[in-house]
Amino acid sequence: MSALAQTTDLDCAKPHQSTERAICDNAALRALDARASAYYAMLLEAKPAADTKVYHDFRDGLQADRLAWQHDKRDACGAQLSCLAEAYRNRVDALRETALEHLGLTVTAAPAKSQPSGPSIDYKNAIYRIDGKDVTLLEGQHAQPAAEGSSEQDVTRVVEPPEHAMGKLGGRSTVGVFVSQEGAGSGTFYYVALVFNDGRATTFQIGDRIQPVGISINGDDLVVSYLDRKADEPMAVPPTVPKERHFAYMNGQILERPPAASAAK
Fold first, then answer.
1. In a domain, 118, yes or no
2. Is the confidence at residue 106, as pLDDT, over 60?
3. Do 51 and 240 form a contact (C-beta atoms < 8 A)?
């Protein structure tokens, strides 16, 4: 934890740049920032068998790469949420690959208390309840003819990226994902789905042709971030308006929290 505190310079108590404000105001981006910081802290705290020049070069390169990424990738996005989400996802992937290349290193920080692993949830092969109908996804997708004898298909699929979120809602282990449905019409409708370990999922429609940004599960609060359009903008306009909505899982349903309740939570 001390290493993590030392490696992140994102202070949400007093963010100065527009980039920092955008990250601090978005739960999904905060989660990505924490994940990137955790990988960086792990690599920074790793110690080799011998304190050699190779190790010091590795440490120096790691620190220089972090500063370059912040300036050239993260901060270059300004307050654009989709740009920031992509920059962070790429950063996490790069740090993960670096960690895998240095499996011979050991972490000197005290290990966290082990937590019992939750049940494995195969969200790509599950039954999704969408608009009152069951849709069975295999390997993250389901397709069927739009009408009898039609060559057009209605396609339902898991949307990744952004990455799925794991947590507990209503005392049940769950995975939160975005799901899209598109067919012969012009729309692509997006849903948030909660998949449980019984292989079934409940969903909530978010909007038509939005841009998913992220999902996070905080306690019993499900936070959904995405880009939408202004009320008077046509569908042809790319979504650029950031939105964040809070939901709760109650009695087998996803219910949206009123803004006041979300703020007070």
1. no
2. no
3. no
Nearest to 175 by CA among 132, 134, 137: 137
**Alpha-carbon span 238 to 47, nearest angstrom:** 47
- Cα–Cα distance between 133 and 148 in angstroms, integer? 18
Q: 129, 202 in Cβ contact below 8 A?
A: yes
* Local structure of 58: helix, strand or coil: helix
Nearest to 180 by CA among 151, 208, 218, 200: 208
For the record, the structure tokens of 146 come out as 């739009």
Number of domains observed in the structure of the chain: 2
Q: How far apart are CA 262 and CA 265, in angstroms?
A: 5
Q: Is the peptide bond before 234 cis (omega within 30 degrees of 0)?
A: no
Q: Among the three residues 78, 107, 136, which one is the final residue of a domain in this structure?
A: 107
Q: What is the pLDDT of residues 213-248, one digit of tens each?
A: 999 998 778 999 999 999 999 988 989 899 999 988
165 or 26: which leads in pLDDT: 165
pTM value is 0.58
Mean pLDDT value across the chain: 80
Residue that the structure tokens 């929290």 belong to:
257
On whether residue 101 sits in a domain, the answer given is yes
pLDDT at residue number 130 = 92
Task: Tell me: do 135 and 178 sit in the same domain.
Answer: yes
Cα 36-96-26 angle, rounded to 5 deg? 25
Residue with tokens 């981006």: 29
